[in-house]
Specification:
Low-confidence stretches: 1-22
Helix content: over 70%
Number of helices: 11
Radius of gyration: 34 Å
CATH class of the largest domain: Mainly Alpha
CATH superfamily of the largest domain: CDP-alcohol phosphotransferase transmembrane (TM) domain
CATH topology of the largest domain: Four Helix Bundle (Hemerythrin (Met), subunit A)
Number of domains: 2
Largest sheet: 2 strands, antiparallel
Amino acid sequence: MLRSYVGRPARAKIDEFNLHDYRPVVSADERPTRRRRGRRLQKRSEGRRRRFRRLDLSKTLFVLPNAITLAAVFCGFSAIRIMAGTSGEHRAEDFYRAAILLIFSMFFDLMDGRVARLTKTQSAFGLQMDSLADIISFGVAPALLVYQWVLYRHPLAGLLASFSFIACAAIRLARFNVLSSTDDGAPVLPGKYILGLPSPPASGILISLVVANHAMEGALEAPQYTVAILVMTVLLGLLMVSSVRFRSFKDLRLNTSSIGVVLFALLSSAFIWQRLKPQFVLVWLLSIYVLIGLIESTRSMLTKVLANSRKTEAHDPS
């Protein structure tokens, strides 16, 4: 009797534990609840795996070039904000700050297209967004800058010159969008040449003049230079809507002509750095770009005229 009485609690304890892993034996009532929890955790983990699988790298990289474009818009907007509030004795410093912001905008505009091509995220959306950003940073902002800087001295003529620059920039960007996309709106690969002077170099000349003026302590904003800057503003706008072809440097190759142009730009820039001011280097480089386009277009036009004259002489021997 004593043995059976003493042995019962021992057997009860053995029944309450699993002898293989020493874990409590789950009762029949607790088993469905634990199974449901396990299924829920399994579903959650599967859902997370599906989210990671659905994550497309191209869609994620699509944000990068557009973010760079928005950075250019921010610089242009900040420059407009500075010029809108400038007055008094701090005008020169405000113009210099606005010009530096627009130079940063040029840098971002130079980067967004190349980043889009490197990441293979070119799209019609990016093309349209880039043009809208350019009309702000390289149309409205530089026109307002040059008007507030010197063109205000001729109220009507200065206003028309500044507006003509904005209008030409808008027309040039609209034409560029039409020529750079197919009928369904998809962007095409950039060619060797661009029709019309691009808006960043056109506005860059005006912006770099403001930077050079700051280095020369306001010498370029003297009244005798106002008419020359007004005429330059109008000419740059006309070059944007012209049929002159400028190099895009998308397929730059190492040959004799390209190496010669690069060496000439470097040596001449070093000469201007030493003789004048470092701030004039940007003015000179952008002017070289415009001159190369004008020289190549003139040479191409003369070649076509000579070819047509030779054909005419061949058909009419008399």
